[in-house]
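Hi R.,

Here's the chain you asked about this morning:
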Amino acid sequence: MPILTRLKEDLATARAHDPAARSSLEVFLAYSGLHAIWTSRLTHRLWNAGLRLPARLLSQFARFLTGIEIHPGATIGRRFFIDHGMGVVIGETAIVGDDVMLYHGVTLGGKAPRNTPPGTKRHPTLEDGVTVGAGAKILGDITIGAWSAVGANAVVTKSAPAHSLVVGVPATVRPLSNATADAARGVHDWHWVI
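And here is the predicted structure, written out as C-alpha cells:
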C-alpha cells in the first residue's frame, strides 16, 4: 500500500475512534499513538531485514518520545489505533489484527517458561476488531477472537472466542451482547473524511 494512502487511512481511523479529534492536522501532529505506530512500521521492516540493533534503538527512542513501547518484532495490522497511549507495551511475538483499538496502559505481554528459545511465540494474538480497555493485561500465547472487547484492568491469561466480552481479575469470558457488538463494529463503518 502506498505510504500516502496508508497515512490517510491512519488519520481517518484516529478521527473515527476519537470524537475529540478536530482535524487531520491535529491528529498528524499531536497523536502519540499514531507516532508510535508509524515508527513501529519502520522498526518492523528493519527487524525483518536483520537490522535488529538499529530496530531496537529506534523503537526505544520512540518509547522515550511517546510512552508507548512496541517491539520491532511485533506484527501490527491496518487501521490500528492507540488512544491516549501512555504505558502501552506490545511484546516481540504479539500479533495485532486489523481494526484493533487499545487504550492507555494496555500490556500485550509474554509468558513462557525459563530458557524458552528466542522467537518462540509467547505473546498474545488479537484478531480483527478487538478493543482493549485501559490497563488491561493480556499475557501469553493466547488468542482474543475477532470483534471481542476486553474490559479495563482485566488480566487475561486464557484465549477467548470471537464476539466475547472478557472482564475481571482473573478474566472471565462471556458472549458480547448484540448492542455492544454493533456499537463496536459501527466505528469501523466510516467513510474517508480527511
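One quick note: The helical segments are 3-17, 24-30, 32-48, 52-66, 178-186.

Cheers,
M.
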